[in-house]
Amino acid sequence: MFLHGTSRINDANHLEIGGCDVTELKAEYGTPLYIVDEQLVRRRCREYMEAFTASGLGFQVAYASKAFSVMAMCRLADEEGLSLDVVSDGELYTALQAGFPAERIHFHGNNKTPDEIEMAIDAGIGCFVADNLVELHMLQAIALRKEVTVNILLRVTPGVEAHAHHAYASTGQTDSKFGFDIGNGAAQEAVKLASAQSNLQLLGVHSHIGSQIFETEGFELAVERIAEFTRKVKEELGVEFPVVNLGGGFGIRYVEGDTPLQVSEYVAAITGAVKKHFTGISEKLPQIWVEPGRSIVGDAGTTLYTVGTNKEIPGVRKYVAVDGGMTDNPRPALYESKYEALLANRAAEPNEETVSIAGKCCESGDMLIWDVELPKVESGDLLAVACTGAYNYSMASNYNRIRRPAVVFVQNGQSDLVVRRESHQDIIANDIIPARIAKQTVAK
């Protein structure tokens, strides 16, 4: 397993993260356990802020909270000067309860409900990213009724397909559920409509071409096409865009062979393309917003499991089962995502066997890793799976009524619980037995 951030193998032959021996974390918090390297998260935040500051352009770096949304993460993002991207009332509520400044919150999503829009307006968020005509009309009607003006960006699809590992990770192409297409004229019509609304302030446009991207060409092409669109809109409609949001999608290393760029390289390519293609369109270059999520928290997360049973099929494979699975990491089942792992309590021992890591759910597809090299695995061993900081906790479920794990932040030898492990009571907290069923049970 590739060691990220502050991860290392200590003198006891144990994996250590943030100065904390994971065997001690297991003893205190149990497993499965999400472990977040706080120092690495903060480093990634600062890399974005420093790279954009060096560009000389106006900017906002908005953490995409869908990657990992808990109050402690919202507070950390605020401390590092980031804005916040939310896509639901739940993410918005989490941010507000954490004390995140509402004026630095951007609300995304292709199907915002009237209740979500009202909640966001009442909170005083900084901007909506409008995704379709229905939403534009809702925003105008609600803002008019509340006698306020709301800031909006229009999400557009520039016709750029990201080089993502899975088709679901591409979002900037013409055939997408998101946004107004530039190529067929829908985006220009949206600009015309939005500009005519009395209670909407059009700040600019938003583009997101996909996720887990390892090159800059797609971003540069998107900038070029958005610049062309911006020039056309100014010439034909007299509308200027003070803000251009280029989304996220910056990749991380999950397994050997993944080749992400440094944050500074992505930012230099984007800001260079903006300076090249937007110069001369308006007197001032637009402010650039981006929305990294995975690249901030992805490789800072490790999931710790306890090994339980195993099953060896001679000549075929050996299955090793852990006490978690697709309930805490659905990405292998959804996207065929790949991960690396090691035995955290015997981290420096040589590999002796090839095994496949199975989850405990009653599903044949509940497999975390196929064919990983490990020392001879024994029941009770601790398995650490790397790079689980993004889209693991946030996509976790209670399938089979399995309780979701705890989350701890670690740094400088200190661990802090930021999400408690769910209890059995939590599992049934919202269950209700109707009176008629209860009476029938009594009668029997």
What attributes characterize this protein structure?
TIM Barrel, 8-stranded parallel β-barrel, Lyase, Ornithine Decarboxylase, Chain A, domain 1, 9-stranded mixed beta sheet, 444 residues, alpha/beta
3D architecture notes:
This protein has helices at residues 22-29, 38-55, 71-79, 89-97, 114-123, 133-146, 186-195, 217-237, 263-278, 294-297, 331-335, 424-428, 435-443, and strands at 8-9, 15-17, 20-21, 33-37, 59-64, 83-86, 105-107, 127-130, 150-157, 180-181, 200-206, 243-245, 287-290, 301-313, 317-322, 341-343, 353-358, 367-374, 382-386, 406-411, 414-419. The chain is α/β, with parallel strands linked by helices. The chain folds into two domains: 8-37 and 298-428, Lyase, Ornithine Decarboxylase, Chain A, domain 1, CATH 2.40.37; 108-292, TIM Barrel, CATH 3.20.20. Strand 17 and strand 18 (367-374) form a beta hairpin. Helix 2 packs parallel to helix 9 (263-278), helix 5 (114-123) packs across helix 6 and helix 8 runs parallel beside helix 9 (263-278).
Brief digest:
By secondary structure, the chain is α/β, with parallel strands linked by helices.
Proper CATH architecture of the largest domain: Alpha-Beta Barrel
Number of distinct beta strands: 21
SS-based structural class?
alpha/beta
* Shape, principal axes of CA atoms: globular
- Poorly predicted parts: 164-172
How helical, in percent, are the residues? 25-40%
Profile the largest sheet: 9 strands, mixed
Distance between the termini: 57 Å
Give me the Rg, rounded. 24 Å
- Corresponding CATH superfamily of the largest domain: Alanine racemase
Count of DSSP H/I helices:
13
Mean pLDDT: 95
